[in-house]
Amino acid sequence: xxxxxxxxxxxxxxxxxxxxxxxxxxxxxxxxxxxxxxxxxxxxxxxxxxxxxxxxxxxxxxxxxxxxxxxxxxxxxxxxxxxxxxxxxxxxxxxxxxxxxxxxxxxxxxxxxxxxxxxxxxxxxxxxxxxxxxxxxxxxxxxxxxxxxxxxxxxxxxxxxxxxxxxxxxxxxxxxxxxxxxxxxxxxxxxxxxxxxxxxxxxxxxxxxxxxxxxxxxxxxxxxxxxxxxxxxxxxxxxxxxxxxxxxxxxxxxxxxxxxxxxxxxxxxxxxxxxxxxxxxxxxxxxxxxxxxxxxxxxxxxxxxxxxxxxxxxxxxxxxxxxxxxxxxxxxxxxxxxxxxxxxxxxxxxxxxxxxxxxxxxxxxxxxxxxxxxxxxxxxxxxxxxxxxxxxxxxxxxxxxxxxxxxxxxxxxxxxxxxxxxxxxxxxxxxxxxxxxxxxxxxxxxxxxxxxxxxxxxxxxxxxxxxx
Length: 468
Description:
By secondary structure, the protein is of the alpha+beta class. The chain has 10 helices and 20 strands. It folds into 3 domains: 108 residues, CATH 2.40.50.100; 47 residues, Dihydrolipoamide Transferase; 223 residues, Chloramphenicol Acetyltransferase. The chain is 23% helix and 22% strand. A hairpin with a 2-residue loop joins β19 and β20. α6 packs across α9.
């Protein structure tokens, strides 16, 4: 007899409320083992691979790739009736069967077991699922009385007309039947302008499938009521892109920062000729082999030395405690443009690194971000940030603070320009720096002093040795 269990989307330990299903690593009919990676999800901050808590055979993928789901939503069903004997070790030394049956009752990510009577909490390997941290959104149209609450239903289950109950609590007898379709199919139909009520499902018990919706969208829509039809978008019209993942997180973060911390931005144009020469010399040293130093390396070093000279620039505002928190360490954030959007991973304790160590850390940070492998921990607890807008061919910008930080430095493009050098006009390598800071913490004189010090070190890199 089949024993099917559902695995719910867990909170992967960063206060997650929802995630996007990026790609499934398994399909219905596949056998899975405990801790085998079954799906890749995209949270607001990073890509995360989730392992299976079960051993068995996949019976259904309850959420399609590209769909956004709330924490606690069932995403996959696994038939565990063929698991190893109770209490026995499964693959990779993991305990399966009896342990899974026991833990499923108290694990928010696992469904299909009786109510818990055991105090010890099971944890999906690698991720701490928090009990009581999430709640399912109530279904629209459901009453609070009796069996009409819908509390026993799950978002992935097809919902038909409720049967009349003895207590008369359903309140829906005689109403039109709701088409049988899973939430991802309903969302697809909504996006494509397809009326589910007008379709005949080809799935089990008449369930409407993705294929049914796609066929209806591609074919004639004469049978769809005029009020339900969606006008065709002419060529050169509009495109709608769902706001998800990193883009959604970035929008919330910059909006919160821009309208919480009063920003001030100051600009300084400097002669970078000596710094560019120093970068070329560093590339020839064996200590930097494989890491290819860039101007960003010396900019980062100059910023950290400026922080050491002016600690208040590396702080945060604690509104609840009504305190300014000065960080006597530097977790250096580097804004990175990736295929997934803007990320700001940071180098932990960057102030303790040697120059070759900092070059290596910058290179590894950039590679990890480009490959989409930056983990939540790599994005948390930054203290001050650099954004290199010069790589996009622009002179400077007015950067928005990373939430929780008091300053961000923008580096513009380094280009040849006329400059007065030693009393004579010459062609030099010039750039523009921009420093945005939180005016609640940083006054104009402090912000100016920090920017001036950074400029002085990049104009004459020997100052980095003197001030370091």
